[in-house]
């Protein structure tokens, strides 16, 4: 009897999945649950208590994370003094989701506003140094309309 074929991309996963390094990943898991309604799928603790690997579900997407491992040169953004990466999160109600993240302890880096590309959009930094953008798509626009909106913004027009 043959066994079913193993899927190259596991059920519930997408082809791209963010994998975050956090100082104190257990606290990060609790924060993401409170800030973004993350649901923990699993957690693999290391013998010393650090999180070796965890997987959370936020909306319809997965997020993986681990503790810092300095002995393997694996550091989170707070240890590195910043991050070049922003995790983009589409939500049903950006204003409510943004408030929820800030109430949970995120820091506002860009207040929510209507953007020229058709999204209502804002950015926060989480307590672990990761940058998040939150958005609700409000208007479908052509590339020409987006480019005109960008030009207007650069010229200081509404």
From TrEMBL:
Lineage top rank: taxon: Bacteria
One Pfam match: Glyoxalase
InterPro entries hit by this protein: Glyas_Bleomycin-R_OHBP_Dase, Glyas_Fos-R_dOase_dom, VOC_core
Coiled-coil intervals, chain numbering: none
PROSITE patterns the record matches: VOC
Domain VOC: start-end pairs: 12-137
PANTHER family: BNAUNNG04460D PROTEIN-RELATED, VOC DOMAIN-CONTAINING PROTEIN
Protein name from the UniProt record: Glyoxalase superfamily protein PhnB
Organism: Paraburkholderia terricola
């Amino acid at each position: 009897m043959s066994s079913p074929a193993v899927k190259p991309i596991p059920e519930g996963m997408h082809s791209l999945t963010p994998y975050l390094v956090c100082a104190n990943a257990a606290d990060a898991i609790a924060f993401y649950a409170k800030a973004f309604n993350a649901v923990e799928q699993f957690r693999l603790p290391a013998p010393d208590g650090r999180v070796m690997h965890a997987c959370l579900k936020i909306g319809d997407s997965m997020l993986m994370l681990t503790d810092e491992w300095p002995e393997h040169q694996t550091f989170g953004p707070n240890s590195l003094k910043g991050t070049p990466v922003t995790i983009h999160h589409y939500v049903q109600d950006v204003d409510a989701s943004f408030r929820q993240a800030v109430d949970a302890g995120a820091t506002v880096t860009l207040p929510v506003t209507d953007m020229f590309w058709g999204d209502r959009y804002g950015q926060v930094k989480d307590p672990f140094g990761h940058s998040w953008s939150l958005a609700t798509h409000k208007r479908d626009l052509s590339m020409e309309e987006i480019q005109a909106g960008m030009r207007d913004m650069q010229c200081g027009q509404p």
